[in-house]
Amino acid sequence: MASRLQQVSGHLAPTDGVANKIGVKSPEDVVIVSALRSAITRGRKGGFSQTTPDEILAGVFQGVIKQSGIDPALVNDICVGSVLAPGGFATNARMAALYAGFPESSSVATCNRQCSSGLQAVVQIATAIQSGLIEVGIGAGVESMTQNYGAASLSATSEKIADSCAAAADCLIPMGITSENVAAEFNISRAKQDAFAASSHAKAVAAQKNGWFKEEIVPLEATLADKEGKETTFLVDRDDGVRPGTTPETLAKLKPAFNENGTTTAGNASQVSDGAAAVLLMKRKTAEKLGLPIIGKYITSAVVGVPPKIMGVGPAYAIPVAVERAGLKISDVDIYEINEAFASQAVYSVEKLQIPFEKVNPKGGAIAFGHPLGCTGARQVATLLPELKRQGKKIGVTSMCIGSGMGMAAVFESE
């Protein structure tokens, strides 16, 4: 069956046979011209806590237009990952695109593969370009967990299905409990989790101090009103959840958040947060014709299913599939951006794949600056490419676990 799938895949591959291959440039490559994000701010407390997600997204869209110099009318389609917003964020995404300067002829869709939605959007656009359906597109992601996080964002589910299918019922397990399940089943100690979390903050603090985030963040204006209604407008240009001075010792003092005997705490789990990101893609020949800068190349991706009750192990199973599809080994990858939904699952994934920790999230991750669900997959691309360039490296992988039991990963090459 696998060989038959490879044959079919070969029939569908670009005609020159070398498109989207590591180390080889082809006119048919799907390349990235711009990848930007907003700052990530704390849910209900941070800089975007009174800003609507469509306004954040529109600001990032405008940043991409300005940075790349693209004529907005050349963008055929935009896909936006969003998880929690009512109505799938469909109308809001269209409004954000129009406000940002894209014409009515630029179409917009949204997608929801939970925590991988931003990456799913990027991959959908890349695939549409590969197949010739469109020439230029944007894969993006956005989330306001201030506005839409919590039980109210959940859809009603069938008791019949949950009662008759154990795996389906496991999809309803709270994410924090799935983290506890991973820690217990694979012996990921509290000390390991706290050390990983402290390292995430330390790396993010260093990245902020050295200005390593500036290339990827679009500064945006935001307004906050106090209890008396007095408004203050200011510039949001840095992640406000990063905590200098965070150590394993300070984290060890926190109580478990989901199980009194557990190991997952508010300090070693991702932060509830708000933010947006966008990635502009097209074929190499299109970028060269338009005289646009090429900062990276999309190679391939993979999505896999894993048991819902330990959904956090997803990256450990998605990454090998994507890396093999790219013709690589795990050790060939220079930088891994693995989402830190929980330290338990991030540590498990890194150890399972025997990835050196110094290759993982060199500027910190979601534990330090947050995980706006729909945004993260696109945000990781915006974080990865400048870091590959800064380090003089070439190959990067982004990956995340996915609620209900999946994992996703994608391979990129810096240029």
TrEMBL record:
One cellular component term from this protein's GO annotations in UniProt: peroxisome
Reactions performed catalytically: an acyl-CoA + acetyl-CoA = a 3-oxoacyl-CoA + CoA
Pathway involvement of the protein, from the record: Lipid metabolism; fatty acid metabolism
Residue ranges constituting the Thiolase N-terminal domain according to the UniProt record: 30-284
Domain annotation Thiolase C-terminal: ranges: 294-413
InterPro entries: Thiolase (IPR002155), Thiolase-like (IPR016039), Thiolase-like_sf_Thiolase (IPR050215), Thiolase_AS (IPR020610), Thiolase_C (IPR020617), Thiolase_CS (IPR020613), Thiolase_N (IPR020616)
Keyword flag Transferase: yes
Catalytic machinery residues: 115, 371, 401
GO process terms (BP): fatty acid beta-oxidation; phenylacetate catabolic process
Major localization listed first in the record, in broad terms: other
Localization annotation: Peroxisome
PROSITE patterns according to UniProt: THIOLASE_2 (PS00737), THIOLASE_3 (PS00099)
Recorded GO MF terms: acetyl-CoA C-acyltransferase activity
Domain of life of the organism encoding this protein: Eukaryota
Alphabetically ordered keywords of this record: Acyltransferase, Fatty acid metabolism, Lipid metabolism, Peroxisome, Transferase, Transit peptide
This protein's record includes keyword Transferase: yes
E.C. numbers: 2.3.1.16
Protein family per UniProt: Belongs to the thiolase-like superfamily. Thiolase family.
Designated name of the protein: acetyl-CoA C-acyltransferase
Biological source species: Mucor ambiguus
